[in-house]
Amino acid sequence: MMSSEFFQNWFLPGIWITIQVTFLSAALAFVIAFPIGVLRTSRVWIVRFLAGAYFEIFRSTSSLVFMFWIAFTVPPVFHISFQPMAAGILALGITYGAYASEIVRGALAAVPPAQREAGIALNFTPLQRLRRIELPQAWPEMIPPFNNLLIELLKGTSLVSLIAVADMTFAGDLLRLVKNESAPIYTLLLVLYFVLAFLLTRGMRLLERHAKKRVGQAPAKTGLFGGVRSSSSIDAVTGTGGAK
Questions:
Q1: Which of 21, 150, 219, 239 could form a disulfide with 157 if both were Cys (CB 3.0 to 4.6 A apart)?
Q2: pTM (2 decimals)?
Q3: Distance between CA 205 and CA 24 in Å, rounded?
Q4: How far is the C-alpha of 219 from the C-alpha of 211, rounded, in Å?
Q5: The pairing of beta strand 241-243 with beta strand 232-234
Q6: What does the pLDDT look like over 191-217, one tens digit per residue?
Q7: Other CB atoms within 10 Å distance of the CB of residue 178
Q8: DSSP 3-state assignment of 11?
Q9: HSE (CB half, 13 Å, CA atoms) of 143?
Q10: Nearest Cα to 110, choosing from 15, 3, 19, 238?
Q11: 142 in helix, strand or coil?
Q12: Within 13 Å of residue 228, how many CA atoms lie on the same side as its CB?
């Protein structure tokens, strides 16, 4: 089905590009999510409004259309050129950063008010309360929905193939055109996405166990495919939490 030359020249580089796009987009989303999520908890209404506007705009925008906009509209209009891979990373990072910011906001809102009151009683500044009280307690609750969002981001990287980024979906589609075979090629792609998603999930679960240990929580023991259950979770889209 696949020659060794094609695998080395297209498929292996395609897998590596998929991994790069996933992690660079995730890093950008992470950098965006925390300040926007924190600002959405501000007592100053204009700050909450601006941060909320970012969330609403990019939550309601198609990642694919935004990617096309960056790749094909920005260069002629603003005279700023982007490489296709950079356009894909920007579009995915900015879009998924909006979703991740809601996870941050929801996790911070789930911190018991008594903890904030204790920080006020200790004469902590808002930044000190955030850094020393709220974030350490909210962080373990962010990791499971972050994991779900990271898997969605991994699957969303296949969109970059539509702007001529040679990821593994692009390589698979090229091989389909050459070999005129669909079933084995797309089955292989499904397996590869599953393997990458599974590895990401295992890594995030290890991170969650470590985070829970740091705040004195006992993480649940899980099997190979078991999910880590906690007393509460934050939904990746709504940012709301609920008892489990």
A1: 21
A2: 0.84
A3: 20
A4: 9
A5: antiparallel
A6: 999 999 999 999 999 998 988 887 776
A7: 13
A8: helix
A9: 23
A10: 238
A11: helix
A12: 26
